[in-house]
Structures are given as C-alpha cells and as structure tokens.
Amino acid sequence: MAFKKESAQSHIRAFLGEGTEFEGLLSFDGTVRIDGKFKGEINTDDCLIIGETGYIEAEIKAGHLIVMGTFNGNVTAAKKVEIVSTGKLMGNIISPALIVLEGGVIEGNIHMKGVADQLAKKEKVVNLQEVKPAQAAQAAGGKNASSPNIRAN
User: Fold this and answer.
1) Residue 97: HSE in the Cβ half-sphere, 13 Å Cα cutoff
2) Percent of the chain with pLDDT over 70
3) Could you tell me where the DSSP H helices lie in the chain?
4) Could you tell me the residue ranges of all domains in the chain?
5) Which residues lie below 8 Å from residue 30, measured CB to CB, with a gap of 6+?
6) What distance in Å separates the CA atoms of residue 63 and residue 77, rounded to the nearest whole number?
7) Are 71 and 91 in contact (CB under 8 A)?
8) By the 8 A CB rule, do 100 and 84 touch?
C-alpha cells in the first residue's frame, strides 16, 4: 500500500473531523487531515490528507496530497499526489509524481511537472530521412531491398 495509516496518524498536527465544516484559507506546516467539509484555498509545503469522509472544494498547493475521500478542484503538489481506492479527484493535477490505487478515480487533466522537462533533456532530436529502395540497393552494393531503410542524418 502506498500510504501507511499508522505513521501518518502519529504525525498529524491538526484534524478536522467528520461533521465539521470550514470555509476560507487554510495554511499550515506539518500534516493535516480533513474528514469533514472544506471549501476555499489550502496552502502547505507539507502533507494534506483528505480522509474517507472528507469532502473538499478548493484550490490546493501542497507538498504531498493524499486523497481518500472526495476532492473537487485543482492541485499543485511539489512532491506527489496519492489517490487511494476510496479517493475521487475531480480537477486538474500538477505534480512530479502520481500514485493511483485500484478503485481510485481521476476526472481531469494531469501534468507531470518536472517529468516532461527531464525527458526533453534526455531525448536527442534525430532527423530521420527515408531512403528509397533503389538508393538502398546502390548503397548495399546492388542488392535488392524489399523494404525502405531509415537512417539518421
């Protein structure tokens, strides 16, 4: 399992339990778990856990987001987003890492921030030119080529 309950619960600094409702701006350090309802904006460099009974409508900027309940909105995560089997995320995700367990739901766009940049640096642009069979035969010493060859310039 991608998320260990006992380790996260032992480090939770704040908890909004089931039946609570909060609206506004929430900024915090450490790990916060929301099992109630929240509407607004959430900012943290640390971890936000949306519990199984949690319902969030927000714009979230977090280091790490774990979704076990329902989240409507957009998230930008510096480290990763995890959606467990009971989690539903309706909105856009920007994160370098994404973990979705079987049963987890995403409805929205995903941008793997940082990943595309790393891949672009690793890839070399290669110009490919198709060689016609007649040219290939000449290059091969007059042998017949049944399929076109491709070579890099």
Assistant:
1) 11
2) 68
3) 5-10, 115-122, 133-139
4) 5-121, 124-152
5) 11, 12, 13, 14, 46, 47
6) 5
7) yes
8) no
- The answer to whether the Cα torsion of 119, 122, 127, 130 is positive or negative is negative
Cα separation, 27 vs 129, whole angstroms: 55
Rounded distance, CA 50 to CA 25, Å?
16
State how far the Cα of 19 lies from the Cα of 36, in Å rounded to an integer: 5
pLDDT, tens only, 2-37: 444 444 444 888 888 899 999 999 999 999 999 999
In sequence order, the 6+-apart residues with CB closer than 8 A to the CB of 143 are 137
pTM, rounded to two decimals: 0.69
Structure-token match 């409702």, residue found: 21
Amino acid at 67: V
Residue 132 per-residue DSSP state: P
Question: Which residues fall within 8 angstroms of residue 131, CB to CB, at 6 or more apart?
Answer: 139, 148, 149, 150, 151
Return the amino acid letter for 111: H
